[in-house]
Amino acid sequence: MPRTRIIQCADGIPNPDGITDAVGVLNAGGLVAFPTETVYGLGADAFNQAAVRKIFEAKGRPSDNPLIVHVASLEIAWHFISDISEKGLTLASRFWPGPLTLVVKRKEIVPSLVTAGLETVAIRIPNHAVTLELLARFGGGLVGPSANSSGRPSPTSADHVVQDLNGKIDLILDSGPTIIGLESTVIDVTTNPPVILRLGGLSREDIEKEIGETHRTRSKDLLKRSPGTRYRHYAPRAQVVIVPHQDRDAFVKQLEHLKDEGKRVGAITSSEDLNAVDRSPSHLILSSSVDRYAQQIFHALRELDRSQVDCILVEGVEETGIGAAIMDRLMKASENKSRHNG
Ligand code: AMP
Ligand code: MG
Q1: Which CATH number covers residue 298?
Q2: Does residue 5 register a pLDDT over 70?
Q3: Which residues pair with 100 in a beta bridge?
Q4: Which residues make Cβ contacts (< 8 Å) with residue 185, sequence separation at least 6?
């Protein structure tokens, strides 16, 4: 494939000719990376098996990891859904378009490659003007996993997509950095109470305000219901070590220990105490606001990889609101490298 084409959509405004070209690529079974409010997605026609297969190849994604279908409206979502619970409908009407993916009973015609053979399909309406226009003009559903190489930190800018997928996909719609910076929250609404399968851009607290109690468990049984959650994910090449929020002593101790082992160490911190320790060029300081931290974290992990450190010491955040999703990502990034890399 020749070099990937990049089309600018300045200030989040759809570029009409660019959208026309992207729809042409999708109709021809090609791959288009698109911006969303969470991270950049890699789009292919959900009903075109050959196109969907190309996604797994381009990303190096295990085929037992199902994909999220992106649509422009609830009306089009019904092409994929056979049944949805009352609570599912409540969440859809309250939070779509937005960073929430619903796992629902699928229609027979949804290709099994999309759902990894499950009886359910994951679906959402993303909240981004460029991609809503793309989806509306395309008219169907686009599978849209994150537009990165499988296992790497998710892409929050077009530049990250280029780093991982240049020459492997046809087109990128570049609309600048993404607003939320973490993937959507995934919730299975086929059970009561519904089960949160992946924390993300919408907090559990906000969901529970609408539908009451939800479950969140890491039991093996549930992981089988959402195979993607089992793989090592979101990880830079360097080893990731997490230190607790505002724990200066733990940070200094780890830093010295790793340096004693002869490692080149990078650091990511966000609290005043830790920001002041060891101001080397590979010490990146993120915002003390968790929302901004979420927006910046994947970029920071990628930047430190580029500076070729062996190990990244990351200051954690409080596990409330989007902070819980940030900690989930950091934990997965820090998992043992020997585990199978999704
Ligand atoms: P990604 O698009 O790479 O951010 O990942 C999609 C996430 O949604 C993965 O964790 C998948 O396991 C999960 N997922 C997709 N489809 C389903 C489904 N039908 N049932 C449960 N989880 C799903
Ligand atoms: Mg992903």
Answers
A1: 3.40.50.11030
A2: yes
A3: 185
A4: 99, 100, 101, 196, 198, 199, 200, 201, 202, 203, 204, 207, 325
Instruction: Assess whether 188 and 71 both reside in one domain.
Output: yes
Ligand 1 proximity of 115 Cβ (cutoff 6 Å): yes
Question: Does residue 185 have its Cβ closer than 6 Å to ligand 1?
Answer: no
Do 143 and 272 share a domain, yes or no? Answer: no
pTM above 0.90, yes or no: yes
Mean pLDDT of 48-55: 98
Atom 19 (ligand 1) nearest CA: 121
Judge contact between 330 and 314, C-beta under 8 A: yes
Ligand 1 pocket check: which of 52, 59, 63, 68 to mutate, most ligand atoms within 8 Å of Cβ? 68
The per-residue pLDDT for range 263-290, each reduced to its tens digit, is 999 999 999 999 999 888 899 999 999 9
- Number of the ligand 1 atom closest to the C-alpha atom of 144: 2
Name which of 264, 302, 325 is nearest 152 in CA terms: 302
The ligand 1 atom nearest the CA atom of 65: 12
From 181, 199, 223, give the residue that closes a domain.
223
Query: Averaged over 243-250, what is the pLDDT?
Result: 96
Q: Is the minimum distance from the CB of 229 to ligand 1 under 6 angstroms?
A: yes
| Contact indicator for 334, 240 with CB cutoff of 8 Å | yes
Positive or negative: CA dihedral 256, 261, 265, 271 = negative
What is the CA(290)–ligand 2 centre distance, in A? 21
* Ligand 1 contact via 196 beta carbon (within 6 Å): no
CA 186 to ligand 1: nearest atom: 8
Residue bearing tokens 């340096």: 259
Q: Evaluate whether residue 232 is within a structural domain.
A: no
